[in-house]
Amino acid sequence: MDFDSLLDESAKIHGHLCPGQVLGVRMSMLGLKKICIKEPKGKDRKNIIVFVEMDRCATDALQSVTGCSLGKRTMKFMDYGKMAATFLNLKTGRAVRVIAREDSRDKAKEYFPEIENKYTAQLEAYKIMPDDDLFNIMDVNISIRPEDMPGRPLSRVKCENCGEYIQDMREIHREREVLCKPCAHGGYYMPGTDFLLPRAVQKSHNGLKIKSKLWIEIEGEPVFGRGRRFLLEAIDKHGSLNQAAKEISISYRKAWGYIKAMEERLSVSLVERQAGGKNGGGATLTNEAKEFLKKYEALENGIKEIVDEKFKRIFER
């Protein structure tokens, strides 16, 4: 790969030549060399994924040189705010992380002390400085999940709150609901009132939903609700507390804390643990836990019927 040609092409794509472009081209050439990728836009194009840690000028250079992009799912943006990138050879599994050295800025002045503009000095110096003066390199291990690989989406599901569709297993499962990340955790945008109000008017009562939550307290402290119900049901399903915690997106420690708190407040044993089972140890529900689940489900269904009927009488007149 010819450095000058790559730099010219990168500058055209970016719109101008800057120190970040030079750094990005040099970073790309070094990373590709380390993982033995010779033709990133040719025969090796399906064997490379690049993780970029900054949304700055250098990222355009990385895309230009490697041919990787978000649209192809061969470039992954990790919002770390670091001038660094990791290059992964999918065929061999070799991966290296290349980090721009902070002291390279100061060293650049030593190469061209006669240039007063520091950015111009950096631009020219970055072209000729040794790799060791520009970058630190570290070998890393990366495991790519199937849903993050290039290719067709593995799944496409509808968010039960906003109605928008979610691809590639990015949905959040919460209390038996499938939600997109903005609905589950909050997003970077908020719909304007000019968008929300007309929709509500057009749909009238047909677009309204009523949702209620039921939980049980003892002396003002919550002891059982839908979330803990789902935890018990997941334990019954998987025979593993670890797998149950993963299904409802909480830590093993938090799940075990919920179990102990419920058992103490209800004064009943809910889960039996066995060493050496699936995922390092099995877990099963006691008969008391299964009976409690049945009673809670019956109560929840009864409350839902009452709320639904009340909602219809008030809003669907």
Structure description:
- The chain has 317 residues and is an alpha+beta fold.
- Strand 1, helix 3 (57-66) and strand 2 form a beta-alpha-beta unit.
- The longest helix has 29 residues, at 287-315.
- The protein has twelve helices and 13 strands.
- Helix content is 44%, strand content 18%.
- Helix 4 crosses helix 5, helix 9 (226-238) crosses helix 10 and helix 10 packs across helix 11 (252-266).
- It is elongated.
- It has helices spanning 3-14, 19-34, 57-66, 104-111, 118-128, 131-134, 181-185, 193-203, 226-238, 241-247, 252-266, 287-315; strands spanning 48-52, 75-77, 84-89, 95-100, 135-139, 156-158, 165-167, 172-174, 177-179, 215-218, 221-225, 271-275, 281-285.
Helicity range: 40-55%
- What is the CATH domain class of the largest domain? Alpha Beta
- CATH T-level fold name of the largest domain: 60s Ribosomal Protein L30, Chain: A
| First-residue to last-residue Cα separation | 73 Å
Q: Per the principal axes of the C-alpha atoms, what is the gross shape?
A: elongated
| Structural class by secondary-structure content | alpha+beta
Topology as a string of helices (H) and strands (E): HHEHEEEHHHEEEEEHHEEHHHEEH
What integer is the average pLDDT? 86
Biggest β-sheet strands, sense, barrel: 5 strands, mixed
- Helical stretch count? 12
Number of domains: 3
Q: Enumerate the spans where pLDDT stays under 50 for 5 or more consecutive residues.
A: 193-205
Taking all Cα atoms into account, the compactness measure Rg is 28 Å
CATH-scheme architecture of the largest domain:
2-Layer Sandwich
Number of strands: 13
Strand arrangement within the widest β-sheet reads: 2-1-3-4-5
Strand content: 15-25%
